[in-house]
Amino acid sequence: MYKVAVLGDRESIYGFVAIGLETFQLDNAEDGADRLKMLIEERYAVIYITEKLHEQLEELIESYNELPLPVIIQIPGLSGNTGKGMLSLKKTVIRAVGSDVTLEKE
């Protein structure tokens, strides 16, 4: 069975425990890099990561983009939504489907 993890600061991720996801509280980018590598080695299928932590680990995450798994998805943190998560998801869909399939509001 595939596993799902959530990485980020405590305040941003603690609610995900209630829906059964494994959460990993990280206090700095170094811990985040180590944990991300471990989760990839353990074959997690989906890894949600706060936008702030994603920004700090962007180079490492880019190195895993060609792998079929895991899917690494940015989520807003406690500090708010920067829009980077939606942009990243849109790019992933374009890469998977071959074109932009989103509907733009007019």
UniProtKB/TrEMBL annotation:
<protein>
    <recommendedName>
        <fullName>V-type ATP synthase subunit F</fullName>
    </recommendedName>
</protein>
<dbReference type="InterPro" id="IPR036906">
    <property type="entry name" value="ATPase_V1_fsu_sf"/>
</dbReference>
<keyword id="KW-0614">Plasmid</keyword>
<dbReference type="Pfam" id="PF01990">
    <property type="entry name" value="ATP-synt_F"/>
</dbReference>
<keyword id="KW-0813">Transport</keyword>
<comment type="similarity">
    <text>Belongs to the V-ATPase F subunit family.</text>
</comment>
<keyword id="KW-0406">Ion transport</keyword>
<dbReference type="InterPro" id="IPR008218">
    <property type="entry name" value="ATPase_V1-cplx_f_g_su"/>
</dbReference>
<dbReference type="GO" id="GO:0046961">
    <property type="term" value="F:proton-transporting ATPase activity, rotational mechanism"/>
</dbReference>
